[in-house]
């Protein structure tokens, strides 16, 4: 499986051995959904595996931020959501099942998830690259100096992948 490194790792936080080292983390919904009271979600939010609309006015698309891992063929993947304009959302829907849609020009979006490892990532500007039918869009960070953009450009080591796993596994625990 390309989504994990078998052989695992010994966690430097808890000292336990974890059997796999994940290469993918996916967030199931845009951050904006958290602002909707739970008793109103059914009436205000329409969400699928790839798209989300809130109040018929806020539009989100799910995509992937790929980061090369030095020494591995498989990239590290952040599965995240971006807010996009109504016009971009309509166009994405028009070409959703269209062969050759990857020829579409990239369009702008704004990251709508908190990747706490990189400081404030909410509303971080992205370029969204449509992929072939059946593949989620690729997101590239617009600001070349943002830490996430630097990783996307330069790649990360397997040690950094382990650091990320440890931070996610033990987030919020006293240290």
Topology of this structure?
Blueprint: E1 4-10, E2 17-22, E3 24-26, H1 41-44, E4 45-47, E5 51-54, E6 58-67, E7 76-84, H2 86-94, E8 107-111, E9 125-129, E10 138-141, H3 147-154, H4 158-169
Parallel strand pairs: 3-7
Antiparallel strand pairs: 1-2, 4-5, 5-6, 6-7, 7-8, 8-9, 9-10
In short:
The chain has 175 residues and is an alpha+beta fold.
The poorly predicted ranges are none
> Topology as H/E string?
EEEHEEEEHEEEHH
Number of beta-strand segments = 10
**What percentage of amino acids are in beta strands?**
25-35%
The end-to-end span amounts to 32 Å
Structural class: alpha+beta
Tally the helices: 4
| Rg computed from alpha carbons, rounded to a whole number of angstroms | 17 Å
* Fraction of residues in H or I helices: 10-25%
Features:
single chain, globular, 175 residues, eight-stranded mixed β-sheet, alpha+beta
Structure report:
This protein has one domain. 19% of the residues lie in helices and 32% in strands. It contains four helices and ten strands, in the order E-E-E-H-E-E-E-E-H-E-E-E-H-H. The strands form two sheets. Strands 3, 4, 5, 6, 7, 8, 9 and 10 form an eight-stranded mixed β-sheet that branches. A hairpin with an 8-residue loop joins strand 9 (125-129) and strand 10. The chain is globular and about 45 Å long. The mean pLDDT is 92.
